[in-house]
Design brief:
Blueprint (H helix, E strand, L loop, with lengths): L5 E2 L2 E2 H4 L62 H15 L3 H18 L2 H17 L3 H17 L3 H18 L2 H18 L2 H17 L3 H14 L4 H17 L3 H18 L2 H17 L3 H17 L3 H18 L3 H18 L2 H18 L2 H33 L7 H9 L1 H12 L4 H15 L2 H9 L19 H4 L7 H11 L6 E9 L14 E9 L4 E7 L8 H17 L10 H13 L13 H11 L13 E4 L20 H4 L2 E3 L3 H17 L4 E7 L4 H4 L5 H14 L6 E4 L4 H8 L5 E5 L6 E3 L23 E3 H4 L9 E4 L8 E3 L2 E3 L1 H7 L4 E5 L5 H17 L5 H13 L9 H4 L2 E4 L6
Parallel strand pairs: 3-6, 6-7, 8-9, 8-10, 10-13, 13-16
Antiparallel strand pairs: 1-2, 3-4, 4-5, 11-12, 14-15, 16-17
Pfam family, one: TPR_12
InterPro entries: CHAT_dom, TPR-like_helical_dom_sf, TPR_rpt
Protein name: CHAT domain-containing protein
Length: 914
């Protein structure tokens, strides 16, 4: 961290943002800049993506704060002066890695000479090189070291420069809290020393950050400080005034904001400042869009296009043509005009080689053709778009293998690829809608399913097929990986149509089972202006039976009481959280204030909530059943096993608790399992066969660890978790050293055992979606440390980042019987969380929970689950789970009949035995 001292009298210890109680989510924030003019589609369907960023300019070349850059400084001797010039020349030539090495050498030489000021300058330049290479985490480390050095020598100018660099770099990483923190410090520093240029920049950037993150009023206050300091600089004054005007529109002072924007427009025209003209026209377009004055919006878009064309700025022209096309299609139902605008954007994308924008333009054109009823044209455009995304996916797979070999790791996830396919999932959704509308059975049923499958779980299927990467014998700096290398050759293509028809029979060879494949579709309402969230939302499902039949249905997703699918799922989980609050659970207890907010929310929607105990969830479960189950009941064989391929927020639906006609829960009447996609299901079937060939006898059972987290999170002891570990150990024939409980259940011991070939891993502990609390090694235990601040809770937490580096070579079944382990971030690539990670690292099946689980009830459920597997080694795990849930549901005169006790657990995979 920076210094433990102060910056110009500002205590940075007190101001430092607190660390999150939990680790950062697995899904990474994308950096703020993009080399494509395409924007992601908004919920209202307009434009191509984001709100106009408060970037101070519409060209995309101007950002909210100057990017850290290479600074020239006088050096101490001729040799150092020569080295500085060489580094600067390399930097200007774009050779940032080589330039950084020379700057680092300069920093070391100044460190040895005791010249701290020049050492800081060299390290700042090193940080600028890393920023240019988008290695922002490393750049931050250098800047923090610079800050500590500047504090030591009390160089306030350097302190300010570094604080601004830290603000910019954290902003690029998407770490909003820290970006704000560093800029607040910069403002305080510059205010305290009355450094005008620094005050202008720092207050302006902080104001724009606050506005971008939704705190418009506070943002205005800081930008007005900056405005008051630059009245003599007309160009800068116009920039700040325009941003303030747009912010006033956002806080409801519309007339004041529009007046400022129009005054800025006149000033920018007088200055012939086309960058500012573009920015203000974009702001005005957004302001008029809010009031649905779409002709005004179009006028300002056309001004931007004209100016950008005059400036030969294809980036801005292409982006605004996409925005204009979205306006014409979604808000004005002007289909032919929309095609014209999108086609112009497509031409520009092809001219500048912007393949991402090309794919998005093709998607948008296809969507308009679909609305016009031109099915063949729509399909042709959308197929071209999927070809673009497929090419990107292939390149990313090659790059992943290359990164693994360079960094010498056999396994790792590819979150950038996940984000990419999440960003472009709408292409596959529009293609599915197009094929469903074709009216041709081979297209509307089979073809639509194949299109859905290609876009679904594209990264996890690749990782499942790829497995571990063979590493070179020695460390290398770079590795060329051909697309024909073994890892890429084994990458997974989506299943073909003939494979689809036989998959269910291969999954359920002895029973009349079925695969139910869901897809949620958002269908925009053209001409409706600002579309309401979830308007025209529908669900498509395909049912593939082991008898070789395929049927499908499509239905709207809204309940009789008017709640959307999102709202039903939200309210269901809120009710489960309130039910869990007064119970002994295996997880981080939710704060009382959160539970009170939940209660107030439920009261607001008319729900009856008792003071304590179980909250009724029948309304939500019945509504979800009406949407998702009733249309397909006639397609299912009574009592037959079902494998569900869910989608989006359907991953959060406890299908086992949904009532069938007559009231019996689906998960009691049918054995349920889940899969990320059909292709992933096929790969898990292959993994099942590989696990049998390995025939490992070793297991790992963990129960009731003495978690180091307990001191901080006040986690209670779990007596039934310890009992569960013994029950499970007995059922699977575990050796004494394979059952780790209490203080023996250390993170280091668990990870060490996971490197061995195991047929089963069972962990019963406090947990949530992001971590599992284990015991700390003695030297890391808070009980043995003088200061609670010195404890390292990360040393007792099993996290995704640790698991990603493993390869579970014997393909074990993994059971996580703590709280919320099946919860995670919803993605097109399945749920981003612990089960996904275990599958990637080699597991054949994963059993985990959606919400906080009851300690004793979970113990009973797991005991019954493993007893069934012990008594019948060939029983399907899904059937063993079904029987175990029924045991708990009927236990003790119905004391655990509420779904909260038994319906949380979901099984991914189609394994038999243990």
């Amino acid at each position: 961290m920076a210094s433990a001292g102060t910056l110009a009298g500002i205590d940075i210890k007190e101001s430092k943002p607190t660390e999150d109680k939990l680790p950062a989510p697995e899904k990474k924030n994308a950096t703020k800049r993009s080399n494509s003019f395409s924007r992601r589609k908004k919920k209202d369907g307009t434009a191509g993506g984001d709100e106009p960023a408060l970037s101070g300019g519409g060209t995309g070349a101007e950002v909210v704060l100057s990017e850290p850059s290479c600074k020239s400084e006088m050096q101490g001797d001729p040799l150092q002066e020569s080295l500085q010039r060489e580094a600067e020349e390399l930097y200007q030539a774009g050779e940032f890695d080589e330039a950084g090495e020379k700057f680092y050498f300069l920093a070391e030489s100044y460190n040895h000479a005791g010249d701290t000021a020049r050492e800081i300058g060299a390290l700042q330049n090193m940080g600028a090189c890393l920023s240019k290479m988008q290695q922002f985490d490393k750049a931050i480390q250098f800047y923090q070291h610079c800050l500590a050095l500047a504090d030591v020598i009390d160089n306030q100018q350097k302190q300010g420069e570094v604080l601004e660099s830290l603000g910019w770099t954290n902003y690029q990483l998407g770490d909003n809290e820290r970006a704000l923190y560093w800029m607040e410090l910069a403002c305080k520093l510059y205010d305290s020393i009355d450094q005008q240029e620094g005050r202008v920049n720092a207050h302006y950037f902080l104001g724009k950050l606050l506005a971008e993150f939704g705190n418009w009023q506070k943002g205005i206050e800081h930008m007005e400080v900056s405005q008051g300091l630059v009245e003599s600089d007309s160009k800068t004054y116009a920039r700040v005034k325009g941003d303030i005007g747009f912010s006033y529109v956002q806080v409801g002072e519309r007339e004041r904001g529009l007046q400022m924007l129009n005054e800025t427009l006149e000033l920018a025209a007088d200055l012939k400042d086309n960058v500012r003209l573009i920015a203000v026209h974009e702001y005005l377009a957004e302001a008029y869009k809010v009031t649905q004055e779409f002709d005004e919006v179009e006028t300002h878009f056309r001004h931007v296009i004209s100016i950008a064309h005059e400036e030969n700025d294809s980036f801005v022209e292409g982006r605004t043509c996409m925005d204009l096309g979205g306006l014409q299609f979604h808000c004005k139902s002007a289909f032919s005009e929309a095609v014209t605008s999108y086609t112009r954007a497509l031409e520009l994308a092809e001219e500048i080689g912007d393949e991402v924008a090309r794919g998005d333009c093709l998607t948008r054109i296809g969507e308009v053709h679909l609305a016009e009823g031109c099915i063949e044209e729509a399909e042709a455009d959308l197929r071209k778009a999927t070809d673009v995304w497929r090419t990107f996916g292939d390149e990313m797979s090659t790059q992943l293998v290359q990164r693994r070999k360079v960094y010498k790791v056999t396994m790792c996830d590819d979150i950038d690829r996940v984000q990419f396919f999440d960003d472009h999932a709408d292409t596959y959704a529009v293609l599915v809608r197009t094929l469903l509308a074709s009216g041709q059975p081979d297209k509307s049923i089979v073809g639509a399913l194949l299109a859905a499958e290609e876009g679904r779980a594209a990264t996890i299927r690749e990782l499942l097929a790829m497995g571990p990467t063979a590493l070179p014998d020695h460390a290398v700096e770079d590795v060329d990986v051909e697309e024909t290398s073994p890892e890429i050759q084994h990458a997974a293509l989506p299943l073909a149509d003939e494979e689809l028809m036989t998959l269910a029979s291969r999954i359920f060879p002895d029973k009349e089972g079925a695969i139910v494949y869901y897809m949620l579709l958002d269908e925009p309402v053209s001409g409706a202006g600002m579309q309401e969230p979830n308007a025209k939302r529908s669900c498509v499902a395909w049912v593939l039976t082991s008898g070789g039949t395929m049927q499908s249905f499509k239905t709207d997703v809204s309940s009789k009481d008017g709640r959307s699918l999102d709202e039903l799922v939200r309210d269901l989980h809120i009710k489960m959280a309130v039910t869990a609050h007064s119970q002994p659970t295996r997880g981080d207890p939710r704060p009382d204030e959160s539970i009170q907010q939940y209660r107030e929310h439920l009261a607001g929607v008319g729900a009856s909530v008792p003071a304590e105990g179980e909250v009724d969830v029948d309304l939500e479960l019945q509504a979800l059943s009406d949407m998702l189950l009733l249309p397909l009941v006639g397609m299912l064989t009574s009592g037959a096993p079902i494998c569900i391929v869910a989608h989006a927020e359907l991953h959060l639906v406890p299908f086992c608790a949904l009532p069938l006609p007559g009231g019996k829960p689906l998960g009691i009447a049918h054995a349920l399992s889940y899969a990320p996609s059909l292709t992933a299901l096929q790969l898990l079937l292959e993994r099942e066969a590989a696990a049998k060939q390995f025939s490992s006898s070793s297991v790992l059972v963990v129960g009731n660890p003495e978690a180091a987290l307990r001191l901080e999170l006040k986690l209670p002891d779990l007596p039934y978790s310890a009992e569960e570990a013994q029950l499970v150990g007995d059922c699977v024939g575990a050796q004494p050293e394979e059952v780790l409980t209490g203080a023996a259940a250390k993170l280091s011991s668990v990870l060490e055992m996971m490197h061995k070939p195991l047929r089963a891993i069972h962990i019963s502990a406090h947990s949530c979606a992001k971590w599992i609390a284990l015991a700390a090694d003695e030297q890391d235990s808070p009980l043995l440390q003088d200061s609670a601040e010195a404890s390292s809770k990360d040393e007792a937490m099993l996290l995704n980042d640790q698991l990603h580096l493993l390869w579970l070579k014997a393909h074990p079944t993994v059971v996580l019987s703590g709280s919320r382990c099946a919860y995670g971030e919803v993605s097109e690539d399945w749920m981003l969380g612990l089960p996904r990670t275990f599958l990637i690292t080699g597991a054949r099946s994963v059993l985990a929970s959606l919400w906080d689980v009851h300690d004793e009830a979970s113990c009973r459920l797991m005991g019954a689950f493993y007893a069934a597997l012990r008594d019948n080694p060939e029983i399907a795990q899904a059937e063993a789970l079904r029987a175990a849930m029924e045991v708990v549901r009927e236990d003790g005169k119905g004391k655990w009949r509420h779904p909260w006790y038994w319906a949380s657990f979901t099984l991914t995979g189609i394994s038999k035995g243990i």
